Amino acid sequence: MKRFSVASYLPILDWGRTYSARTLTGDLVAAVIVTIMLIPQSLAYALLAGLPPVVGLYASILPLLIYALFGTSRTLAVGPVAVVSLMTAAAVSEVAAPGSAEYVAAAALLALISGAMLLVLGLFRLGFIANLLSHAVISGFITASGILIAVSQLKHILGVSAGGRNLVEIVVSISGTLGQINVHTLAIGMVSVGFLFWVRTGLKPLLMKTGLSPFVAGLVSRAGPVIAVAVSILAVLTFDLADKGVRIVGEIPAGLPPLHLPMIDMSLVLGLIGPAALISVIGFVESVSVAQTLAAKRRQTITPNQELVGLGAANIASAFSGGYPVTGGFARSVVNFDAGAETPAAGAFTAIGIALASLFLTPLLYFLPIATLAATIIVAVLSLVDFAALKRTWAYSRHDFAAMITTIVVTLAVGVEAGVVTGVGLSIALLLWRTSRPHIAIVGQVPGTEHFRNVKRHEVVTDPRILSLRIDESLNFANARTIEDFILNEIAQRPSVRHLVLQCTAVNEIDGSALESLELIMHRLSDQGIALHLSEVKGPVMDRLKRASFLEHLTGGVYLTHYQAMAALAVGFAGEACPPDRSARASEPHS
Amino acid sequence: MKRFSVASYLPILDWGRTYSARTLTGDLVAAVIVTIMLIPQSLAYALLAGLPPVVGLYASILPLLIYALFGTSRTLAVGPVAVVSLMTAAAVSEVAAPGSAEYVAAAALLALISGAMLLVLGLFRLGFIANLLSHAVISGFITASGILIAVSQLKHILGVSAGGRNLVEIVVSISGTLGQINVHTLAIGMVSVGFLFWVRTGLKPLLMKTGLSPFVAGLVSRAGPVIAVAVSILAVLTFDLADKGVRIVGEIPAGLPPLHLPMIDMSLVLGLIGPAALISVIGFVESVSVAQTLAAKRRQTITPNQELVGLGAANIASAFSGGYPVTGGFARSVVNFDAGAETPAAGAFTAIGIALASLFLTPLLYFLPIATLAATIIVAVLSLVDFAALKRTWAYSRHDFAAMITTIVVTLAVGVEAGVVTGVGLSIALLLWRTSRPHIAIVGQVPGTEHFRNVKRHEVVTDPRILSLRIDESLNFANARTIEDFILNEIAQRPSVRHLVLQCTAVNEIDGSALESLELIMHRLSDQGIALHLSEVKGPVMDRLKRASFLEHLTGGVYLTHYQAMAALAVGFAGEACPPDRSARASEPHS
User: Fold this and answer.
1) What values do phi and psi take at B398, rounded to 5?
2) Handedness of CA A358, A361, A367, A370 (dihedral sign)
3) Which residues have a Cβ under 8 Å from the Cβ of B66 and sit 6 or more positions away?
4) Where does the record place the STAS domain (chains A, B) (predicted)?
C-alpha cells in the first residue's frame, strides 16, 4: 500500500515542477485547436441535454481549470460529451419541465451530485465499482446511445417540435409532425450533415494533395464544424432565414459563468440520485479508458482513483458555475494529444479560450441555426455506433453477446437508465451462472509420467479404488453445491472407490460456503468409508484452511503433488487383490 | 446430457419395482413414529403461520402423498416446518387480516405460487438458482429466524395478545401487554417448556439406564411433545383452565381436507410473488441439504432438479387441499431415517396416519392449550440458533462473516424477506469484489529448474527485459480493468522491459471484456515497443481464443510452457549487451 501524500491527491505538484517553455508551446498550440473544436461542440451538446447553448460554454471553463489541478491524465480533454448529455436530458426531464429555469438548475444539481459521488469514490479508492460495467454493456450502451442521440436530433434537421425518451417514442413523435417540416431548416440541416460527413472522410486526403502534411491536414479537418457554423450563420443573414421559420440560437448572454451555490432541493436530489450514479460511472469508465490509451502511448500512467477525484472536482465546479455534468471526451482528447498537449495546463488554456469566446464571441452566434448544431451532433455520434462489435462478440462469447444485445434493445426501447441497469444485471447473473458451473475433470495418470490429465481428453490410467478430480475454478458459494452434487453422484456410480483426491491446481480461493461444502462432502464420504484427500493446494489457500478446523479432522491427507498422493495411496493398497491399473476411457461409458 | 425419460420425472417407477415386505415393514414403523411426532408439530406450525391448527393437519396429508410420487429422496419427511411457517406469516399478514378467511385463502395461494415456481424451476432444470444463497446467509437466516420465532411465541406462553414482524416490534408489543399476563397460561407454558427441554437432554439417558437401547430411547424421547400435549389437555380439563382465561385450540373440524381450487386474485398474486420466491428457494435449499445428507449415509443420491418437481407438486397439492407452504423438515426426516424408512412410501403412510388423526382425533384436541403448542415451537426452534457459526466464520472468512451478521441483523431488525435479500445482495457484491481483485504474481525462474514462482515468495532469477506475470484468476469483466491497470503500471516502472509474458496456468476462462482488455493491453504495449506473449494457456481457453482475431495479430507468441517462452525470448536477445540474469528480490523495492 502506498502511503498518503498530498502530491498523490494534487498531481499538479508533480508535473508543475518540470514545466518549461517547450511544454508551454505544446500546450498552447493544443489549446487553440481544442478551443476551436469545443465551441460548436459545447453549444451542440448543451442543446442535446435540453439546455440553453450558453450552459455548454459554462461547462467548458471552470471544470477544465479544476481538472488541470486534480486530474492525472496529461492529455484528457474534459467538458460536455454526447452520451452524458443524453443521460442528463433523460434524467432532468423526469424532474423538471424542459425549457424552464428549474430544468437548468436541476442539470447543475445533477452535476453536483455526480461530482460528489465521484469524489467520494475517489477519496475512498472505490474505483473498482466501475468494473461492474463490462465491455459488452458499455459497447452496447454507446451504440444504442449513438442511435438514440442521432434520431433525437432529426427534429432539429426537419424543423419540427417532437419529443420522446426512447426510440419508439421519438419515432412516433416525429412521424406525427411531418406535415410541419420547414424546408429552409431541412436544407441547412441536410447540407450541414453532408458537409460534415465529407469533412470526416474526404477533406483530409484533399488537403494532403495540396501539399499539407497528414498531421496538419488532420488538424485542419477538425475545424469542419466551425466552418459549418460560420457558413450557416452567413446563410441565415444573407437569406433572412430567421424570418422564414429557421430556428436560431438567439441571444447568448455574454460574460463569464455566474458563480453560485446550486439550488439543493431534497426531493430533487432523491429523484436525481440514481441517474447521477449511472452518469458518474459511465462518464468515469469512458474517461479513464481514453486517458489510459493516450497515457500508454507515451509510457505514462494514470491513477484511476485519482481520476475519480479529478472528474468529481470538475463536476462540482461545473455545478457551481451554471454548467452540467462533464467528463473526458474521446475525440477532443485525441485531438489534444495529437496537437501536442504535454500537461493538464493545455486544458487550463482551453478554458481560457472558451472564457474569451463567452466574453466576446456570443453576439456572432446569434444567427447560428439550431439545425447546424444538430448536424454536428449527428455526424459526431454516428461514429459511436459499432454494429461490428455485435458480430465479433457473438463469435467469441454468447454471454457477452446476450449482455450487449440486451443493453442495446432495452436502451432503445425503454431508455438509457433501464438499458444500463438491465445490462449490468444480466452480466452479473451470467457471471454467477458460469461460476456456478465449474469445469470438473476426472483425471488419470499419463503413463510413464508424473502428469495427470482429463480422462476424456487423454489416454490415461486410473485406479478403480481412487477417484481423482480437478476442479478448474475457485470454490465459492455459487458453485459449492454444484461440486457437492457432482462428487456425490460420481461416487454413487463407483462402488469400488475408497479414496477421493481433489487436485487443487486451479483453486485460487475457498470461501466459507465452499469450506462447509467440503466438510459436508467429507462427512458424507466418511459415512461410506471413503477418505477425502487434497493435492497441490496453493499457498494462500492453505494458509486460510489452517485457520479452520477442517484440516484437523480431514479423513485423508494433503499432498504437495498429485503424483505423491497417488503413490502414497497405492502403498496403502499393497497386497490387496484389486488390479492396480485400468484404462479410464474404457470404464467411463458416460459422464 | 441425459435423455428425457418418464422415470426421471416419476421416481416412484424406479423404487416401486423393487418394493418388498421388508421395505414395507421399515416404512410402516417409520410412518407410525413420524405421525406421532407430526401431529403436535403440524398444529403448532400452523399456529406460528397465523393459521387455524387444522390447516397444519391438511398440509400434512396430500402434500406427503404427492411428494412420494415425485420426490427423489427416500427418507425426506415433507410437511409444515418452522422457518417456512414464519415466512408464511410475514408474507400473508401483508395482504390479509390475521384470523380472517382471506388470510387462510392467501396462505393456500402462497403455496400454489411457490409450488408453481418450484415446478417451473425443476422442469427447466434451473435448480442452480439456489446456489445464490451462500451457507453464510442461510446459516445467519436460520439463526435469526429461530430467535424471531421463539420471541414471537412468548405471547402465547404469557397469555397476552401481541404482534410485530421483527424483533423490535415484537418486544415493544409484548412489553406493552405485560399487565395482562394470565398466570394459568404462564404456568402451563413454563412447565411445558421445562419438560420439553428436559426431554431433549435428560430423557434419553434416563431411558437408557432403564435398559432400553440407545436407538429405542432416542425414538421414545421424540414423543415428548405428544406427552406434553396429552398432559396439558388433562390439566385444562381437571382444573377448568379454559374458564380461567387459558386459550385453547377449540373445535377443529373433523374430516379430510376439502379439495378445491385456491382463490386466485391477481392483486394478491402480485403481492405474494416476491415472498413466494424466497420461500421456494429457502425451503428448497434446506430440504435438499437434509435429503442429500441422509442419502449419502446409504450411498444413495438425490436429483436436486427433480426435488424441485417433487416439492413443487407437494406445494400445489397443499394449495388444493386447504394447506399452506410445505417443505422437507430436518428433525422429522432424521427421525424417519433412523426409524427405518426405506422408500417414499413411508411418507405416504404418514399421510394416512395424519388423515386418520384428522378424522378421529380432533375432538380430543379441543382442550389443548395454545401455550403448550407455543412451548413445542420454542424448544424446537432454539436448536436452530447457532451463534458458534459466527465465531467459526469470523475465523475463516471476513466476507462470509459480514454476509452472515448482516443477514442476522437485518432479519431481526427489519424482517425475514429483507434479511435474505440483503444477505444475498451482499454475498454477490463481495464475490464480485474478490473477483475484481485477482492475485497477480510477478514470477521468476527457480534457478536450475523449469519452474517459475512468485518473486516475493521465492529466490528466483528474472531478466530485466522480460516481465513474467501469473494471474491467479479467470479473466472476466469484473477484473479486466484491474489487470489492465496492474500491467500498465508495472510496465511504466520498468523502462527496460521489451517482452511481457502472461502465464495462464490459473486462467480457466477469458470472457469478452477480458479479451478486449487483452487487446487494449497489447496495443498499449505495442505503442511502447513491447511484445505480449502467452504461456500455458488451457485447452478450452485456447479453443475459444481461436474464434477471435486476437491471436492473429498477437505481437508475441503462445508457448506451451513458460520455460519454453523464456528460452525462446532469451534466444532473441543473443548477442545483446544486457546482463542475462539478476536477482529479482534485489530489484523489487516495492510493489
Assistant:
1) -65, -35
2) negative
3) B310, B313, B314, B316, B317
4) 456-569
> What is the percent of chain B with per-residue pLDDT over 70, rounded to a whole number?
95
Distance of CA B167 to the CA centre of its chain: 22
- The dihedral region occupied by B192, where left means phi > 0, alpha psi between -120 and 50, and beta the remainder, is alpha
Instruction: Tell me if B495 and A299 make a contact (CB, 8 A cut-off).
Output: yes
The yes-or-no verdict on residue A582 having pLDDT over 60 is no
Cα distance between residue B294 and residue A261, in whole Å: 67
A394: nearest CA partner in chain B: B512
Query: Is A274 within 8 Å of A78 (Cβ atoms)?
Result: no
Cβ separation of B400 and A511 shorter than 8 Å?
yes
Please, are residues B43 and B249 in contact by the beta-carbon 8 Å criterion?
Answer: yes
C-beta separation of A367 from A242 below 8 A: yes
Inter-residue contact B370 to B52 (CB < 8 Å): no
For residue A135, give the nearest of B427, B428, B516 by CB distance. B516
Domain range list for chain A: 19-133+190-377, 440-587
3-state secondary structure A183-210: HHHHHHHHHHHHHHHHHHHHHHHHHHHC
Distance of CA B81 to the CA centre of its chain: 14
User: Smallest Cα–Cα separation from A325: which of A46, A9, A532?
Assistant: A46
Question: Residue B580 carries which DSSP code?
Answer: S
Residue whose grid cell is 405460487: B113
CB contact under 8 A, A512 and B133: no
Q: Residues B196-204: contacts with CB within 8 Å, 24+ apart?
A: B196/B224, B196/B225, B196/B228, B196/B375, B196/B376, B196/B379, B197/B379, B199/B224, B199/B227, B200/B224, B200/B379, B200/B383
DSSP B510: B
Tell me the three cell numbers of residue A280.
Answer: 458518474
Q: Pairing relation of β-strands A78-79 and A327-328?
A: antiparallel
Q: How far is it, in rounded angstroms, from Cα B185 to Cα B206?
A: 29
CATH number, domain A440-587: 3.30.750.24
Burial per residue of B231-240, b for 16 or more beta-carbon CB atoms within 10 angstroms, e otherwise: ebbebbeeee
C-alpha cell belonging to residue B291:
435429503
Q: How many CB atoms lie within 10 A of CB A457?
A: 11
The phi-psi region of residue A241 (left if phi > 0; otherwise alpha if psi is between -120 and 50; otherwise beta) is alpha
Do B547 and A395 make contact, defined as CB atoms within 8 angstroms?
yes
Q: What is the ipTM of this complex?
A: 0.76
Contacts across the A-B interface (CB distance below 8 Å): 203
B438 touches B505 (CB < 8 A) = no
| Three-state SS letters, B30-55 | HHHHHHHHHHHHHHHHHHHCCCCHHH
Cell 379441543 sits on residue: B366
Q: Is the pLDDT of residue B589 over 80?
A: no
CB-closest option in B399, B437, B506 to A511: B399
Distance CA B405, CA B412 (A): 11
Contact B431, A509 (CB under 8 A): no
Nearest to A301 among B297, B489, B525 (CB): B489
Q: Above 50 in pLDDT, residue A587?
A: no
DSSP H or E run through A58? helix A53-58
Query: A477 vs B133: CB contact, 8 Å cut-off?
Result: yes
- Nearest-CA neighbor of B288 among B327, B332, B251? B327
* Strand runs labelled E in A370-456: 440-445, 452-454
Q: End-to-end alpha-carbon separation of chain A, Å?
A: 47
DSSP letter for B67, please: H
pLDDT of A591? 32
